Amino acid sequence: MAAILSNPSAAEAVALQTGPAAGARPMRIALIGNPNSGKTSLFNQLTGLNQKVGNFPGVTVDRKSGFAQLTATQRAEIVDLPGTYSLYPKSLDEKVITDLLYDKTSASYPDFVVVTVDANNLRRSLLLFTQLGDLGLPAVLALNMMDVAERHGVNIDLPALERELGVPIIPMNARKGIGVAALKIVMAQRLDAPPVRCWQPDEKLLPLVRQIRYYFDLHNDYLALHYAQQFRQIGFLSADDKAYLQELTQKYGFDATAQQASETIARYARINEILLETVTVTRTETREPVSNRIDRVLTHRVGGYLIFLAILFLLFQAIFAWAQYPMDWIDQGISALSATIQENFHGPLIRLLTEGVLAGLGGVLIFIPQIALLFGFLAILEETGYMARVTFLMDKLMRPFGLSGKSVVPLISGLACAVPAIMGARTIESWKDRMITIFVTPLMSCSARIPVYTVLVALVVPDEAAWGIFNLRGVALMSLYLLGLFSALASAWVLKKVLKARERSYFIMEFPVYQWPRWKNVGLTIYQKVQAFVLQAGKVIVAISVLLWVLASYGPGQRQEEAVSQLMVRQNIGFSSPQAMARYNQEHPEYKEDLARRVASARLENSYAGTFGHLIEPAIRPLGYDWKIGIALLTSFAAREVFVGTISTIYSVGQDADMGTLQQKLSAEKDANGQPFFTPARAFSLLVFYVFAMQCMSTLAVTYRETKSWKWPLAQLLYMTGLAYVAAFAVYQVLS
Amino acid sequence: MALFRRSSQQVAVSAATRRTAKDLRLGESGTICCLEDPEMALKLLEMGCVPGVKVRLSGRAPLGDPLMLVLGDQEYTLSVRANEAATILLKE
Asked: Smallest Cβ distance to A507: which of B42, B74, B81?
């Protein structure tokens, strides 16, 4: 023991040999680097389409991994880690890295890491690299963007740098794939930990560090120091371990902030020494970089906002107009398939398949075009570097509402769908900013509200021009979107006052250099997001659809049968004999269809769902709704767009009928006094209800996943439903 | 009145001795001397705001905040809020 104590590197060597088992399973290699250092490009070059997105255990950060063929016989698993500037994580994304790299006993501990380094930003990139090296991780340095560095007159003495850092260095241009072959050859060899230590914990820290090191049986002093620094955030430590570390750090009076600052400064000092010996810059051009000149246009005080608005307009156009065609094809395809099955097969199972599963599946698949377009657009904005400028432009505007510039991207994405938008809030480092963003994002009018808006607006707003230029229906539609936006901002402002901040909000961010999007990356993003949506959200939606189908198809006891036979008795009056009725039916097919619809309607009224509608009618009567709308509110709780499908069924319109007939039926609906049921008061009350109400299971599920607590989705549900109820009540009472 | 003038002068003097990255004029450069706020300093250090590095104010967001700072000779750009830039003290 004494020998080990006096010679930690010997202990490290032993620990390394007993580390991850060699042989049977393919090597696991983690890819790590600064944001914008070309990590994603390298990952795509190494794995191609052979990758999958999963979750890191315990957290919901995407875990991108794939297999790379290193040599003819050797395959390796590559894990793509989120971009980070150091091993001291700030955001949720970055915490994944420490959880992975600190637990050597974990099944997913990597055999070695490939560190991507931007050759133009060597000083800052090497900070992360030296930290990884000091953890005792075998590493390869992928020196990326060599072409740009050469253009800028940066000359790097590679053999000298390799000597100083003690690891193999591969110069590359990951975008073009240059250097990938050389990297694969190095990766195919089993590497040792770098022999060079850049920085060691100070003598004064050693008693604390050694105690942690031997308590947890760690292979390295620096890792023990990270335990002292970050034990509160390390996912795999037990509560007892954390209490132990808490006590220990207190006993030694450990000042995490001061220690981290002095470590960082010491590292930079060492890095500067290394760079002084290995890098020479012969700057030939003094011309301002192109990026800065583009920035002068795109972040101009007037032009900047105009360009942003124009891009937003294009985004809307794509999601709402262009996506319509493929959505129609999907809709028609599903209906045709469903009809074919129903024509050829019969029975309750077939009905479950067509009206439950297929209808639910159609509800999922129909959103693929919008999701693909939205993510394609966002990926392009991200790839070019424009998204960083948007957060820069919007930060000051968002701050009075308790949001940051980084909240803009989730809020905009929320116009398509709140589910990916809420996941996009992960990049926000500040806990408070992130929670507020997640909480208010569902108030932005998502694409699932479009069908509801369209049907109801068309019902009560005339198709006329206002003030010569605007279409009244367009104005109404835009007002609904603005109402959503303002309620999101106002709610954020309220939440800002309510929430106690545990940590402060930062806005320190690097501007990536403008570049052309890599279409392969854009394509991969679209593919992965669509896949995740279909698999994850799809499961929930299909399950709910099946459940609703059962509730709407079956009723308590014999009530449905009784209602139908009563209806039939009423229908049969006037016919002299059943034969006469059959003849009449044959001569007037539309009469038979009408009867079938009324039978369906009667069955629905007496189903479980219909019973429920009657049950909640007293609660929704003040808003102007009857039991039929009650059913629609219930069914559309799974997803808002179900509303239209439900009222089509309730108002006994066949599923294949187009919007026009639904409109006519709704207009023809009479209340008890024989007046049209859908008055402007009722329609606007419903519209306002749908602007605010949290009618989306998937959003609640994703909020739960992202906040890891039921508190947030429950608060969201109660707040939004309450807001919807009060607002709809006010609208109905004022207008009627 | 005299008291008021004197006190405002004092403010001006102390502001001049404590120049920060926030006080830079557009296009002007300075050298980082130290970082004031310990917690913020950690983030700034990681992002390359190390004492001794040159910093240039290359732009402001349309509403005056955040700021766009170009660091060092290697020309990379950071976005920081004005109150964050105020913790970066500059050498005389």
From this structure: B81
For B78, the closest of A291, A300, A509 (CB atoms) is A509
User: CA nearest B42: which of A109, A494, A262, A571?
Assistant: A262
- Pairwise CB contact (< 8 Å): A265 & B40: no
- The residue among B36, B69, B74, B87 with the most chain A CBs within 10 A of its CB, best to mutate, is B74
Domain residues for the domain of A56 are 2-188
d(CA A543, CA A525): 27
Check CB contact under 8 Å for A123 and B65. Answer: no
Q: Which of B43, B61, B72 is nearest residue A395 as measured by Cβ atoms?
A: B61
Better-predicted residue by pLDDT, A698 or B75: A698
Mapping DSSP to helix (H, G, I), strand (E, B) and coil, where does residue A493 land?
helix
Residue-wise pLDDT for A294-317, tens only, equals 888 888 888 888 998 888 888 777
In a domain, A117, yes or no: yes
| Confidence (pLDDT) at A727 | 95
Q: Which of B39, B79, B83, B87 to mutate against chain A (most A CBs within 10 Å)?
A: B79
A334-365 per-position pLDDT tens digit: 888 888 888 888 877 887 777 777 777 776 78
For residue A516, tell me if it sits in a domain: no
Q: For residue A545, is it within any domain?
A: no
Query: What residues 255-274 of chain A have any CB closer than 8 A to a CB of chain B?
Result: 257-258, 260-261, 264-265, 268
CA distance A711 to A714: 5
- Is residue A151 very low, low, confident or very high in pLDDT (cuts 50, 70, 90)? confident
Q: What is the pLDDT of residues A193-219, one digit of tens each?
A: 778 888 888 888 888 989 999 998 888
At position A308, the amino acid (one-letter code) is F
Domains of chain B and any CATH numbers: 20-90 (2.30.30.90)
Domain count, chain A: 2
Q: What is the ipTM of this complex?
A: 0.81
CATH number, domain at A21?
3.40.50.300
Minimal Cα distance from A90: which residue of B? Answer: B43
